[in-house]
Design goal:
This protein is of the alpha+beta class and about 375 residues long. Helix content is about 15%, strand content about 50%. The chain has a single domain, classed as Porin (Beta Barrel). The N terminus is likely disordered.
Length: about 375
């Protein structure tokens, strides 16, 4: 009887095992099918990326129809910035035998700007648009005033090319060392200190400006100013700068006219500017300019400045300016102290005295005492 029961048991076991084995085979078949589908999908994605890459490489970059597609892979930053400056001052004026005193409250160039860039480190496009804000005396339709607007391209290899309305390369070194720029003790009729020419204020119209990359500390600047009036009087600016550690030097030459927007009028000028900071504390600056107006007497202008932070919040500054020749011949001196309330906010107190030479017709002396506040803000870029 045992001989007949053994085949029966084997059949029963085979029948019980056949179900799970069949299910395992079916599962393996499904896994293989899914793997095949995934491989086919990946191949389709790679083919699509290859076609898009080929399309981007053949897309034209010049012409009205060549509008590049916006890509999130291109870095770009855009932001808004501004500055609010308010001062109150008292000025005493002596003109011959007459004297007068006046009190003033000035906004000292409130401004609002928009700037940004996109592209990479090797090549990027940029723009900067800035307007003045007159919230004190302007009517409702004249709150914003013209300042500058430019755009251009910048490359670490090839330098920076800008076009529009902007500061001349000649102006920037002087503004950099002027501790009293846009304060109540600025020279009459300008934002700069006495001893600096009118080329240190204002902007140029219709300008194309180029600044080279740095070569062993040296960089080169050049600009042309286009006069689009009926009797054009174009201008130019060439310069060379050097920076090594705490030392900076600039040599500039400029020829400009009133028609291109210069407050200095029709004139040609040369300048040398030196700046040095000792141990990141005592900052010294000096400027010499020779200005030759086309219809007036030439001038030599000298300016020296020093500043020193006595604490991490308080800084002392002093400046001396001297003008030899022309209608503004004289000597000017200013002293100031600056207190940092926050990284972007400071208050200050200044004193200035300007003595014009007796050779100047209608010579005047000015003594000014003022206090003010400066607040800067920005977000985005």
């Amino acid at each position: 009887m045992r001989r007949f029961l053994l085949p029966g048991y084997v059949g029963i076991v085979t029948t019980l095992l056949s179900g799970p084995l069949a299910l395992a085979d079916e599962r393996d078949d499904r896994i293989l099918a899914l793997q095949d589908q995934n491989a086919a999908l990946m191949q389709r994605i790679q083919d699509q990326e290859a076609r898009l890459s080929a399309l981007e490489q053949t897309q034209p970059v010049i012409g009205a129809s060549a509008i590049p597609a916006v890509s999130s892979s291109v870095p770009g930053k855009h932001g808004v910035y501004g500055r609010l400056r308010l001062s109150m001052s008292r000025q005493h004026t002596d003109m011959g035998s007459t004297s007068s005193a006046s009190e003033r409250q000035d906004e000292n160039a409130h401004l609002l700007g928009f700037k940004g860039h996109w592209g990479g480190e090797e090549l990027r496009a940029l723009y900067n648009i800035q307007v003045g804000v007159d919230a004190d005396t302007a009517t409702a339709g004249d709150v914003f005033t013209r300042r500058f607007a430019y755009a251009g391209l910048s490359s670490q290899t090839w330098g920076t090319l800008l076009y529009g309305s902007m500061s001349a390369p000649y102006k920037s070194p002087g503004v950099d060392i002027d501790q009293f720029y846009d304060t109540p003790v600025a020279a009459p009729g300008g934002a700069h200190h006495f001893g600096l020419s009118s080329f240190n204020s204002g902007w140029i119209n219709n300008s194309v400006s180029y600044t080279s990359p740095s070569f062993s500390g040296f960089n080169f600047q050049g600009a042309v100013f286009k006069d689009d009036s009926d009797n054009p009087d174009d201008g130019w600016n060439v310069g060379i700068g050097f920076e090594q550690g705490a030392f900076k030097a600039d040599l500039q030459m400029i020829d400009a006219s009133t028609e291109t927007g210069f407050a200095a009028g029709d004139a040609r000028a040369q300048r040398v500017v030196l700046a040095y900071t000792f141990q990141e504390k005592l900052a010294l600056g000096a400027s010499w300019e020779h200005v030759k107006p086309k219809l007036a007497e030439s001038q030599n202008l000298y300016y020296g400045v020093a500043s020193y932070p006595i604490t991490h919040k308080i800084k002392l500054s002093g400046a001396l300016g001297f003008v030899d020749g022309g209608v503004s011949e004289g000597v000017g001196i200013s002293l100031g102290t600056w207190y940092s309330v926050l990284p972007s906010t400071y208050i200050y107190a200044v004193f200035g005295n300007i003595n014009q030479s007796e050779r100047v017709t209608g010579a005047s002396d000015w003594r000014t005492v003022g206090v003010g506040v400066h607040h800067a803000f920005g977000f985005g870029n």
